[in-house]
Fold this sequence. Notes:
Layout: H1 4-7, E1 13-18, H2 24-55, E2 62-63, H3 64-71, H4 75-87, E3 91-98, E4 101-108, H5 114-119, H6 121-131, H7 133-143, H8 160-163, H9 168-193, H10 206-212, H11 220-223, H12 226-238, H13 242-251, E5 253-254, E6 259-260, H14 262-276, H15 283-289, H16 295-308, H17 313-324, H18 327-337, H19 344-356, H20 361-374, H21 382-394, H22 400-422, H23 449-462, H24 464-470
Parallel strand pairs: 1-4
Antiparallel strand pairs: 1-2, 3-4, 5-6
Amino acid sequence: MASAWDKVKPKDQFKVKLTADYNAVDQQTLTLLYQPLIGMSAYSLLLNLNQLAKVYPNDTVIEHSTVLTQLDIGLPQFFEARSRLEAVGLLKTYARAIDEGHHFIYVLMPPVSPMQFLTDDVMSLLLLDKIGETSYKSLVAHFSFDLSDLSSYQNVSRTFVDVFSMSNLAMSQDSEELIRAKKQFKAMQEITSESNVEIDNPNFDWVFFKQLIKNLPIKESDIDGQLKNTIDSFHHLYGINELEMQKYVMSAIDFVTNEIKIKELKQYIYRDYHGRKKQIVSPMKTLKAEGLKTEAEVETFRKNTLKRENYSEQEIAVILACEKTPPLVFLKAVKEQKGGFVASNERWTIETIVNQSKLPNSVINMLIHYLLVVKKETSLNQNLVSTIANDWVQKKLFTPEEALSQVKGYQKQTKARTSSKRGPQSKRKETLPEWAQSEEKRVETPVSKEEQAYFAEQLKRLNQSREEETS
């Protein structure tokens, strides 16, 4: 991830502009709906910029050091907070390169209405996952109102043209002024209508998914509409794959009307995901919860922890890749790096392990790495994968480090059996991965240069989208 110091410096100046001041409803929306997602630092930064926009005239330039001092935060924390505000559409950042750095214009955007927020697939799903179902229901009840008692009534409200009339003369006289006003607000409208909350899932195989549901009574227009947005949101947040998604979609079909019940689909996925408790909390998420502010800090802390536990650089790269990547994505990347492709039986094998075992994704990825990279198998054998997965479940291996330790044990057993069969007359030295050798004789390279480059590239790609947003 690019350093915050490469993007902004304390001496860089900025101007801050308001598109609209926050009213009482906006304040509630920001506090109750946005704050759980963006965190306290980003929320404080938003309020600080809002006050600066009121105190200083539009043309006043302010140094970032002023904000850092007022909020008592460092530059990395500021950059992380700014990125979060940008991601949820509360801030637009415009930058211009100058001789000694950059000049910025920060445009504060109004929050969406509570109804828009709670009906948006991405925002509502993130909030639900953050605060839990009970608190989420309370917020929905707070921001909604009951219209059930209007069912026996008819809307008799009059329209605008029923009440107001304007002469052609008045329209013609004021037309030039109207045109000027429209032009003035057009640019503002274009800015405020842009949304940063967009989900793009290149890893979700829509061609394969549509093949899975082709026999279901679903209209193509429904698939490409709200259903697609919902699926993209859940895949992005939970890493739900095509086969799992097919199961959820089938459960949410009304076979009388041949329609997808989006609300029920969301409930099925959320409750099943959180009810299974299949995944333990990853070390990366645990570190985030313990107060480390930026992703860079979390990753650095994680790396240093693994180094203190005597893991090699190559082992650390594998562990981090296993923690950050969904199993199908990991499998596809490894196969492509080896010059192969994911066969249909391999896909089904991994999906079966994901759905039926209690192994976290990181452990499943370590299993894939063991078979395809360490053992150099050309493809995954279903029986072998199932046997190993069953063994790991029974041994309660729930972290990639534990899985890696198990793999080292396999390698030592293989070395012992090989030496025993060859007898004392055999002089050929067996080449083993670094972590399979004794501490006194770590000589061999555990992973090839190409494989090291692959894992480095995978870690880079995992953060690419966030880097592009801050570029």
